[in-house]
Task: structure prediction
Amino acid sequence: MASCRLALYEKQAGSTGRVEIDDPMDQRYRALQDAKKARNLWSTWWKGHLRVGKVYTALNEHEKAINSFERALALAPTNDDVKKALDESHQILGRQQRQEHLDPESKPKSILEQLNDKQQKFSLNSEAVRKTYKLFREKNPSLADVEKGYKYEHGDNDVKQNYEEAARYFAKAARQGNAEGMYNLARLSERGLGVRKDHNIAQNLYEQAAAEPPYHSELYNIRNNGVAEAEHALGLRYAEGVVVNKNLGIAARWYQSAFEHGNVQSGNNLALLYENGSGVILDLDKAEQIFEQAAKQGDSNAMYNLATLLTRRAKFPMANIWYDRACKAGHIVAQADRGFKDDVQAKHNIIRSFSPDTLPMMDKLFELFSSLKTTTSASTAMDGSDFYDYRMLLEHANCGSKTARTMCDALKHFLEALYTFTQNDTLTKDEENLIMHNLSQCHRIEHIVAQYPSIEIRNKLKDLVDRVLRRCNTTLSQLDEDTRTCYAGLNMDSPTLIINFLSLCKQKYPKSIYFFELSASMNGFLRQYDATLYEANLGLEIDQNYCQLLYDKAGALRFLENDMDEAIEAYRAFLAVAPKDHRKVPDSYYAMAMCYLMSKNDQSLENATKMYQKGEEAEKLQLPCFLPYDPSIKTPIKLQLDLISSIKIKISTLDIDNKARLKDPARIEVIVEQRQWQNQLLKAKNKPGLISIPFTYKARVSQRTAKSLAGLKSITFRDMDPVKDHVYERYVLPVTIIGEAYSWAPSIQLMTEDEHLDCKKLCIYGFPKDQGEYLIKKVFRIGTKMNIINPYLRIGASDKKPVIRIDEFSSIELQSESEYVVNMCRCCGGANASYICGNCKQARYCTKECQTTDWQLYKHKLICIKE
Result:
């Protein structure tokens, strides 16, 4: 009945796809009532939950749909229809939460629209861009197919939109190894445009595209389109759980890679993970850095999110600046947030009432509350690590470590399962059963050692588990219990799905304590602490000394906050039976410290301090594979102890931490990119066969100089809008040259640093060409200080990155020779550096540490040419 009503709704909606939801004749409403009645009559029938989910999908309520689909999948874990429906709702909900429909950059554009955008932003005409395309096609003929694919996908002057033709050309390009073709074909496949909708095919294409080189080897610094985009798409899929299990840690790695390869949206997503401590360790400084990097590259979401974070961290002037930039960039949510500046001003007024020494403490408080918000799991279910060293574990086991012995036993079962699985192309039933036995034993003994060598192997093993489950799930047997254990262990990244699945497993095998352990852990991860406590107590009835359940019980009691004394006693019960080197012993002491701080008695601070110290002592007993110890619980305890003890951390806002500056990702990126370009120049000089074609685009606006510095205001890089092509008239920009030039055609390109020690490339035009060599060797030297009058911030036509462009040579005013930094350190910028690079004899360093930093982080090798 529900299916019939839903089909009737689709017929009523017709081509518009719309029917008012409050219409009493709306068939979706009636379909939902029918589907719910059917589900309630037979709650263990998977199809009832599937039908409820489908109606919620039609109602565009995808969170409820996902809940129903996960219940259906728990009852029918091998059903492909349920998996497809779940993937689809995960993806649509992700798009809605990212508000893609409000992002001006996400709207598809025709070729003509794209060319017009370039003409408007960079003073280019359509013909110039088409000539650029022609150059690329000569280097890579498959680009012609990609261009045709775009024309058919979006439509063009002489081409009618046709998704089937677009998919055909993208597929043709993909077969020639073109990453952009692979990526675009994947996009169409996951949406069912021109080809059959298939999320698995899309996943494979994204992975193929991401495996391609991120840059064209024959065209320096030109991105290989499709690679970073595919990496970003894979990050989204792991963040949302489409086809793959949801795993924010893996999503973070894909976002990191995509951002490094030029996808600014990934930068925004990665920063959000660091801001919230999701999949990565919470790091507000890193979140701010990455937001700023992405914002400076034009991502309006990053601009708004950066403004919000800066407000929370009491950095109000820059918060307002980035909010204005987000609005100017067309960020609809920012434009609608009309109370943002009033909120900033109100918070600023509150902060003004505190002493200057309090401001750093306020930032620490915000970090504390953020860390407390993310330290919510009473389980260890989501722990992960690299492969564990069996020899190291065996050595410690032979020295008496119970934890190492346990891990050795689990690892042995895991490796035996993996060996059987990977050494045979086809498996007999006996071999499949043996794999299920060994893998389930690994999960029962210690699941964290189950680290798979590749995602591909993990996915193939999941397929095997599904296959075995189909042939054994109808009867009670050891094989069925083992296979269910494997299924639960392999799908821990989908906690809601597993909780529903485990409810059936516990009914079928009520004496299997692992099902209770995992159920308690998954509920803890979802912050369902009452359920965690309930499952832990049920499991402890089977074995009252089961370590993991004792730990989960204690964690649930702590987060429920009903009785801190009871929580402390629960942790003591865990410590009484756990080996001294158990990986959760330090955590337990730190958690007890938190419980003492939350309890109200005179000894709270003293007891908390003692527990904190015991936690640090317990860390010393940990196995090497658990060091350095995860600070997720330790850090907030330390912050609270510091706050309560009134330990003031005095941080001068005028002093800049030099070491932190040198490790700033934005600084590293801009300097390394410059050196990569210089490396190509040096190779071209030394190898006449290599072709280096210097070219530039005409300036969009003209720069004029002033007769003197009188009346000009000083400006720095951070004062400039990094996404706006603009001449800052009546301003002067003081900079110091920190990187030498190797060429003067078509411009002299220097690396410079302003008074805040921020870096940016500076391109000088308009000088007599016969003086180029003299200028780069005698005038624009490392350590030279100069003023740029009416500086022009130019947005790159190809990479869209900001540089300082000088077309009016007279706008440069060199500062006096007394200001020159003699023998400047190539790394930190200090004067009178005494160490000299032994290879190039050019670079100077003030310490060996600076030399190592320049070599490792800034890739000095790229420009280190032996004399």
Notes: The mean pLDDT is 85. The first strand starts at residue 713 and ends at 714. The CA atoms of residues 385 and 517 lie 20 Å apart.
